[in-house]
Write a structure and sequence with these properties.
about 0% strand; 16 helices; about 325 residues; about 50% helix; mainly alpha; single chain
Length: about 325
């Protein structure tokens, strides 16, 4: 099987992609990614004859780029502390630490996972209203207040808004500076989260602190993407129409539609590119984001290590295949 064949084929079996990752056959990693888009649960399955999952082998081999793309798959059930079947069992941070000296990619992956663990722990404290624990972590690293792992929907401020925890918000403001314009994975401000859960007083309080937050909510109510203009339509073989959307949902469900939709424009991709944060964006939309001077991920708010845009050939081929079928 050639690399080009793997990128044009459909989702494969668990056994096939497990063997690809276990053997570190990088030429076929596109097939692994494409399969996980449709079968995300394959990521953490440990087969009977083995001690590790696909997730563990990605870490063992230092597959940094694929790891970043996988954890950005919408709604993926990503378990940082998934243990191997070795004795004793090891999570991916422990495995990454053991292999960190093997190569630069292993070292980068260890740093990525270590940071994910910290962010995940912090956001979980916020979700469970453990304010004192949040405060302790912020005293060590105040940047955590405005960061989250790709697979988490909410930043800390959204969890506080959901729980109507104004007291904790005011407490934590003493040790950090909240970015009040942060949006959830489905593009909602903290005030919108509060309003949706009938916490009107807290929502209005947040907007009194940030007129920009109110302006974003009002733009959302008018049906406009706040601060993120949709790119002008361009000639392409992939048309964003209702028929194609229905075909995507029929083929892979709502989650597949989410995989094929730009998180900035909320439109089906025409020219998808992978960014350094692991997310895939419409090229013109993420380029516009960069042209405005942003140097943090629009989805995690983590500082960017690169601004390189790499074509996501897997999604492009998948969309072209569906568009061709849609013509028949």
């Amino acid at each position: 099987m050639t690399a080009s064949a793997s990128s044009n084929s459909g989702p494969s079996s668990f056994e096939d992609i497990f063997d690809v990752v276990k053997r570190n056959e990088q030429a076929h990693f596109d097939l692994v990614y494409r399969t996980l888009l449709a079968k995300a649960d394959y990521l953490t399955i440990i087969p009977n004859q083995d001690n590790y999952s696909i997730l563990h082998y990605l870490v063992i081999h230092g597959a940094h780029d694929l790891f970043n793309k996988v954890i950005a798959i919408p709604n993926i059930r990503f378990i940082l502390l998934t243990k191997s079947n070795t004795k004793p069992g090891k999570d991916i941070l422990e495995i990454a630490n053991e292999h960190r000296s093997k190569s630069n990619d292993h070292k980068k992956l260890f740093k990525t996972i270590d940071r994910l663990v910290q962010m995940d722990k912090f956001v979980e404290y916020g979700k469970n209203n453990q304010t004192d624990e949040c405060k302790k972590m912020l005293q060590t690293d105040e940047h955590l207040a405005n960061q989250k792992p790709p697979y988490r929907k909410y930043y800390l401020i959204h969890h506080l808004a959901y729980a109507n925890n104004r007291h904790a918000f005011d407490q934590l403001r003493q040790v950090c500076r909240f970015d009040l314009k942060l949006l959830t994975n489905d593009n909602k401000t903290a005030s919108e989260v509060a309003f949706e859960n009938n916490h009107r007083d807290f929502a209005q309080y947040l907007e009194s602190l940030s007129p920009e937050m109110r302006a974003i909510r009002e733009q959302h109510q008018q049906g406009k993407p706040a601060g993120k203009k949709s790119p002008k339509p361009v000639a392409t073989s992939v048309q964003n129409n209702d028929e194609l959307e229905k075909q995507i949902i029929t083929a892979g469900g709502d989650n597949m539609l989410a995989c094929l939709t730009c998180p900035l424009t909320k439109e089906i991709f025409q020219d998808p590119v992978v960014f350094t944060d692991g997310y895939t964006y419409e090229r013109s939309a993420i380029q516009q984001w960069l042209d405005l001077g942003h140097r943090r991920s629009p989805m995690t708010n983590i500082e960017l290590t690169s601004i390189e845009l790499v074509p996501n050939t897997v999604l492009k081929h998948l969309l072209n295949d569906m568009a061709e079928k849609n013509k028949k």
